[in-house]
Structure prediction request, 267 residues.
Amino acid sequence: MNWQKPFELESNRGDYDQILKPCFTSGHVKWGFFVLRGFAEMNEEYNNQNRPPKEEQQPSDETQGKLRQISIDELKQILKEHRKWLKSKGKVGKRADLHFINLKKINMKKAILAFADMQQSKLFGIDLQQANLIGTNLKKSYLNQVNLKKANLFRANLESAKLIGSIFRDSNLRETNLKNSDCKGTDFEGAVLVKANLQGADLLSTFFEEADLRDANLKEVKNLTIEQLAGAKTLYQAKLDPELIKRIKKNYPYLLEEPKEKTDQTK
Prediction:
């Protein structure tokens, strides 16, 4: 792919280190959730004031004209203000408003987009490796062929998102909302999907090798075979349809057993 030249994000990595990363190191998990709860409250207030009209639909051929175009310089400024907003806990700066935005094949590796509003956006082929997307709203977004390897999507909202052929390898998707998402050909190898909601998702040819699916909701999923789950790390206490549970018990009963290893909550 002919990626555009990456814009500078690394010089501001310290903002993330000061705000969220320390919260999830050993001994600070409870404080981490406290900080996240504070941001969640700001999110709720923001969404109530800036929620797009309910009639707007996921980007499609009919709605392409509604998508907003922004330059790289504008994107840099939005991310700069967003970092200020995160660091000050909403006192200064501005939460990133990237809903209904059209971005294509640009490098946003390690971008700090925690709690950003990116719903109903089109992000085709974006490089978001190791990005911070904690609590980010990506509902109904078009994220086909996006590289999200080692990204942190803890409690992100990807409901009804298009994720065809995207890479979530070794990513944190703990408690992420993937309800009714289109995950055909998506790569979840090594991903943490603990308590993730995949209800109603299309999982045709989705890859779950070494994925941690404990407590995940896999009810009413489409096109999922037990062979796809055979290489998963665990399905302990996952919510599954009766017929799928029956077949797993017969062929891969170890997947339903309690794993000896504890899930890394700091991933």
Notes: DSSP finds five helices and two strands in the chain. The longest strand covers residues 102-104. The chain has a mean pLDDT of 83.
